[in-house]
Specification:
Elements lengths: L5 H13 L5 H10 L6 H9 L2 H11 L13 H8 L1 H15 L11 H22 L6 H10 L2 H9 L1 H14 L3 H8 L4 H11 L4 H8 L10 H15 L15 H7 L3 H8 L3 H13 L1
Helix pairs in contact: 1-12, 2-3, 2-6, 5-6, 6-8, 7-8, 7-14, 7-17, 8-14, 9-10, 9-12, 10-11, 12-13
Length: 286
């Protein structure tokens, strides 16, 4: 646990508070889909009340990436074709993209960041589906992957000078960005990211996964484990760039948990080109 001074805690909290609120419609979608008895029509009603989300959803579904047999003209049709979880993840992705700044004074590349976040989210979901123990919803891993680096966005927006310095230090000395952040700022993006998802009223388990996605990972925690491995695979295969090119080795406990090392896990996952294609379709579709 990082010890932070009262002044630093106040500064970080102020930065987090300046971030836009997460859309209420998406919070409602997440609430509904946590209920295994959720009726599809309830989800459809929430999405249809958000015309921007509806437009983005239909645009993506009718893109070349999905190549569906017929044009989708309603949210209800989209649920029939792709299922509740896929539509939920898409809605969440649109919401996360909607609160991203177009520019920042730190020189942080938001488009490359977005590619890394989207690919990490998809990889975490795939890892959960393949290596999960039946105790975790793959969508929870997707959400963790999507939001795991959002603390960097907070730094880029509201502490740009310090974050720019941390980015430079990480590149010059080939050290992990979270280590550079601790040296320059006194705290890293995982702490700030966990504070942000707390503000957005996501479950505490998600905040914990984000808080510990670089250290203190519990191999018994499927979300934490899948997030860590997905993050490293995304970096290793150059699926976007979140300002940190350092690929961390899998701790022995995670090698045991997944039954293989990083290269072996990647081999087991097979062709991952669709992960990149899907992420690109999202970034182009919005």
């Amino acid at each position: 646990m990082i010890e932070t001074s009262a002044d630093l805690t106040k500064k970080l909290s102020a930065a987090v508070e300046k971030m836009p609120a997460f859309p209420k419609s998406v919070q409602r979608i997440l609430e509904l889909t946590r209920d295994i008895n959720c009726e599809p029509k309830e989800l459809v009603m929430v999405i249809e009340k958000d015309p921007v989300m509806t437009m983005k959803l239909l645009r993506i579904l009718n893109s070349a990436y999905y190549s569906l047999p017929r044009q989708i003209t309603s949210v209800n049709q989209s649920v029939v074709y792709l299922g509740l979880n896929t539509i939920k993840n898409m809605a969440l992705s649109f919401a996360a993209m909607g609160v991203l700044p177009q520019q920042n004074a730190a020189g942080f590349d938001i488009q490359r960041y977005l590619m890394h976040s989207l690919t990490t989210a998809s990889l975490a979901r795939i890892l959960c589906q393949k290596f999960g123990r039946g105790d975790t919803d793959p969508s929870d891993c997707y959400i963790a992957g999507l939001l795991h680096d959002f603390g960097k966005v907070v730094f880029a927006q509201f502490m740009p000078a310090e974050f720019r310095e941390a980015l430079a230090l990480s590149g010059e000395q080939s050290m992990s960005l979270h280590t550079a952040e601790k040296q320059i700022i006194g705290a890293d993006h995982s702490l700030v990211g966990s504070m942000l998802v707390g503000k957005w009223q996501f479950p505490e388990s998600l905040a914990d996964a984000i808080r510990h996605h670089h250290n203190e990972i519990s191999p018994e925690n499927t979300v934490q484990s899948c997030l860590f491995v997905a993050d490293q695979i995304s970096k290793k295969l150059s699926m976007g760039n979140s300002g940190n090119l350092q690929v961390e080795e899998l701790p022995p406990a995670l090698v045991e948990r997944f039954g293989d090392n990083m290269d072996g896990i990647i081999a087991q996952l097979g062709d991952l080109s669709k992960v990149v294609d899907e992420a690109q379709s999202f970034t182009k579709g919005v």
